[in-house]
């Protein structure tokens, strides 16, 4: 039996993280499904699918923009070679 004061192994920490992520994923899935059932009742399936696609696209766009903004300050412009500066980067 493991002592409660013992530090968990990296494998155990990774397993815990995977279980938590799976549980969080299932909770989100269930919340979305419940909302779709509540607000999508009576709508054509095509409308529900279109709305879910719009939400997915909006999230994807925001994530891509956020990630780009996070690295934007790290991006360096290429210095063009000129006759006065032949040692510039390619």
Describe this protein's structure.
The chain has 2 helices and no strands. It is mainly α and 90 residues long.
For the record, give the distance between the C-alpha atoms at the N and C termini, rounded to a whole number: 61 Å
The radius of gyration is: 25 Å
Structural class determined from secondary elements: mainly alpha
What is the helix fraction of residues, given as a range?
55-70%
In percent terms, what proportion of residues is strand?
under 5%
Integer average pLDDT: 86
Low-confidence stretches: none
Number of strands: 0
Specify the biggest β-sheet: none
The ordered H/E elements are: HH
> How large is the count of helical segments?
2
Topology, please?
Elements: H1 10-40, H2 45-72
Summed up:
66% of the residues lie in helices and 0% in strands. It is an all-alpha fold and 90 residues long.
Give descriptors for this structure.
single chain, 90 residues, mainly alpha, flat
């Amino acid at each position: 039996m493991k002592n409660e004061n013992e530090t968990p192994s990296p494998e155990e920490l990774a397993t815990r993280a995977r279980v938590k992520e799976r549980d969080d994923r299932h909770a989100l899935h269930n919340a979305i499904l419940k909302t779709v059932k509540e607000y999508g009742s009576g709508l054509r399936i095509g409308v529900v699918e279109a709305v879910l696609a719009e939400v997915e696209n909006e999230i994807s766009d925001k994530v891509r923009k956020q990630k780009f903004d996070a690295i934007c300050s790290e991006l360096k412009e290429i210095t063009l070679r000129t006759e006065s500066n032949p040692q510039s980067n390619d």
